Amino acid sequence: MADTIPAYGLWSLVVLNSAVFIFFAFSFFKPTTKRDWRSLGAFSAFIIALFTEMYGFPLTIYLLSGWLQSNYPGVDWFSHDAGHLLEELLGWRANPHFGPFHLASFLFIGGGFVLISAGWKMLYDAQRAGTLATTGIYARIRHPQYAGFVLVMFGFLLQWPTLLTLVMFPILVYMYVRLARHEEREVLAEHGDTYARYMREVPAFIPGLRRRRT
């Protein structure tokens, strides 16, 4: 019975899964400014591209089919499970949903959404109080929400890498870094030395990367 279920062409699942994850990100991120909407829009494009290949049309598999079939002749590359490329290429022959990359992807995706949610709450509370957000997660990194989006996208790359999302990923990371720098210039103009001191003490995206003075 399972063999009669198509692996791809499931466009209703493309729409459903894309909508669920975009709404999930929206509910965690709660965009208000044009910059926020651009951030969410870029993430949404990544998600749509991902699920289009996961359930709709496996472009990556088609483009690499000759090389894949020549080097891994025992794999049915147009089955759905074969889309978990990292597990297949490294010889994981059990259920790929329990493979090491798939399981690791859940940690990155879950951690990313936690960062996005925690960042929004601290920022919202600080804005209501008319102060800078420098406590909680903001005491560890300056841009938890952008870091969260990057973690979520990286998690999906571990789970279901495609040529398109691999190209999109560094472009989106660069975009988030530029957005973060633009925000910092605005906050510096408003808060001056207070924020400059905070920037010296707290790393932008990765905890533990404080600048050490000698």
UniProtKB/TrEMBL annotation:
It comes from the Bacteria. The chain crosses the membrane at residues 6-29, 41-64, 101-120, 149-177. One of its GO terms (molecular function) is transferase activity. InterPro entries: Phopholipid_MeTrfase. Its main location: membrane. It is a multi-pass membrane protein. GO terms for cellular component: endomembrane system. Keywords: Membrane, Transmembrane, Transmembrane helix. It is found in: Endomembrane system. PANTHER family: PROTEIN-S ISOPRENYLCYSTEINE O-METHYLTRANSFERASE, PROTEIN-S-ISOPRENYLCYSTEINE O-METHYLTRANSFERASE. This is Isoprenylcysteine carboxylmethyltransferase family protein. It comes from Agrobacterium pusense.
